[in-house]
Design a protein that fits this description.
The chain is mostly helical. The protein has helices at 2-27, 30-74. It has two helices and no strands. The relative contact order is 0.05.
Length: 93
C-alpha cells in the first residue's frame, strides 16, 4: 500500500515538473518570446490609451474651469457652442 502511494506521488511530481519545464522551454523559443513581446506591446498600448483619455478628460475639466472664471470676472459667457446650440458643459444658455 505504501509503495502505491509513493509511486502515485512520484508520477504526480513528474507530470508537474514536465509541464513546468515544457512551459519554460516554450517561453525561450522565438514563438514564446514573440508572445511575450506582443503581450507587452498590448499592455503598453492600453496604458497609453488610458493616459490619453485621462489627459483629454483633464483638458475638458480645465477648459470648463477657465470658462467659468472668465464668466465670473467679466460677466460674459464665452463658452464655445456646439452645432446643437448647447454649451460645452451641456447647459443651454
Amino acid at each position: 500500500m505504501k509503495g502505491m502511494l509513493w509511486f502515485g506521488l512520484g508520477i504526480a511530481a513528474g507530470v508537474a515538473a514536465s509541464r513546468k519545464a515544457r512551459g519554460a522551454a516554450h517561453r525561450i523559443t522565438p514563438a514564446g518570446a514573440a508572445e511575450n513581446v506582443g503581450d507587452g506591446i498590448r499592455e503598453l498600448a492600453a496604458a497609453v490609451g488610458s493616459f490619453g483619455a485621462e489627459v483629454r478628460a483633464g483638458m475638458v475639466q480645465r477648459e470648463a474651469e477657465l470658462h467659468s472664471t472668465v464668466a465670473q470676472r467679466t460677466g460674459m459667457d464665452l463658452a464655445p457652442r456646439s452645432a446643437s446650440g448647447r454649451t460645452s458643459a451641456g447647459v443651454r444658455a
